[in-house]
Amino acid sequence: MVAFWHFYTPGKDIVIQNPGADNRPEGMERTIDDVVIGEFFMRFAESTSTLTGQWTAFRGGDSRNIAQTNSRFDFSQDFQVVWRVETGEGYAAPVIFNGMVYLLDYDERLTSDMLRVFDLETGQELWRRWYRMPLRRNHGFSRTVPAVDEQFIVTIGPMGHVMVCNRITGELIWTLDMQKQFGTEIPHWYTGQCPRIVDNQVILVPAGTETLMIGVDIETGEIVWQTPNTLGYRMSHSSVMPMTLRGKRTFVYMALGGIVGVSGEGPDKGTLLWNVPWPPSVIAPSPVQLSSDRLLITAGYGAGGGIIQVNYTNGRWSAEMVDRWRPNEGLASEQQTPILLDNMIITIPPNDAGGIRRKVVAYSLDNFRRVLWESEIDERFGLGPYIVIGNYLFAFRDDGELFTYRIEQRSLTLMRRQRIMRGRDAWGPMAYADGFLILGCDSTIYTLRIAAD
Known about the structure:
Structural class: mainly beta
Shape: globular
Mean pLDDT: 92
Strand content: 35-45%
C-alpha cells in the first residue's frame, strides 16, 4: 500500500531502529530469500488515547462480525469522515485496541510489507514496522487482518511471513516464515489467511508438506503443538475459526482439499478430529457455526454452499456433508463470510446466484434454499463487505457507497446510503469500535464517526 511517505514528513522526534539489519546499503534490492522479517522500525508519536473499544481480529473477537453497542445513530445526515490515509493497492483491513488502529500495508516504492499503527480519533500515524520483500502486483498485495490482544499484535504478510510485536511499543518479539519452515504453498493472489489468538497462543495454518496447523506461544514463538498434514491439504484464502462443537473447542479450517476440525483443548490439543473432502480450487469465506454440531460452508466459482454435521459417538469423532447446493439453488457467498444473526444468515450471493446476485439477502436457519428477505433491485454490492452494529447492517458496495439498514426478522429497511468515495474493489472487511467505523477501497482507508452520542 502506498504509504504516508508521499505526503507526510516526520518530525525530529523520529527514532529509527534496525533490529536484525544485515549491514546492506539502504535501498539495495532484496530477493524473497533475503527477507529479514520486521527489520525496520520508525516511531512518529506516542498514543494518548483514553478509548477502550476493541475489534481484535478478523470478524471481531468472537468471530461473529457483530458489534454489540448501545450507541445511537443519526440517519438524518451523512456520517462524518474524520480521517483517511492513502495505502498501497490491496484489501487488508484493520483491528482496533484501546484507541490504536493496526493495519497491514505494502509500499511499492520501498518494496516493503508494513505494519502501520494509527490513532483512532485523529488518524495520526504512531509507528510502523516493516521489511523489504519484493513482490509483483497480483490484484493488490496485502489482504489480511491482524490479531491483537492486551500485549501483542500479530500479522501475516502476503508471502506468509508472520510477525509478532509489542502492540504499544512496536518492539519485535518473534517472526516465522511459513514457506521456509513448513514448505507452505502460498495461494494465488497471495496470503488471505488471518491469524487468531486463543489462550495466549497464535493459531496458524501453514498447510505445508508435513504440517497442517500449529499453535505458537505468543510470548516466545515456541511451537506448542502441530497437526500433521497427512491429508495433503493446501492453504486457501479462508481463515481458521474457533468453535465449540459437541462441547469440544475445535479449530475449523477450510483448506484446499477439504474442511478440517482440529482439537483446541485438552491432552489431544492439535489432533485432527475430523475432515470432510471438498473440491473448490479457490476458497475465500470462512466457515460459520450454526449450532453445537453443524456448520455452514460457502465458496465462489460455482461451489455454492453446504452443511457439515459433526458427530461424536463411542469416543470417536466424524463429520459429513449432510446437505449441499449450487449458488443458484440456495445460500452462497464468493468472498465475504456470511453473518449468523439470531435465527437467520445474512449473505451477499455471487454472480451465478440468479436474480438475487450481489444483493444483501437473508435465509432462515430452517431453509437455506428460500430467501427470507432481500435488498432492492438497485442495491447490489458486488464483493463488498458487511457488518452488523447494534440493530443495523452496514453494507459497503464495492464502488465506495455505504448503505445502512435496520434489520428485522422479516424485513430490511434502508435508513441511509452515503457515497464515501468513487472507488473500486472496496473488498476489505470493516472494523468498528468506540463509535468509529473503518472501511476502504483498494488504495484508501476511511474512518467515519457513525455514533451520534
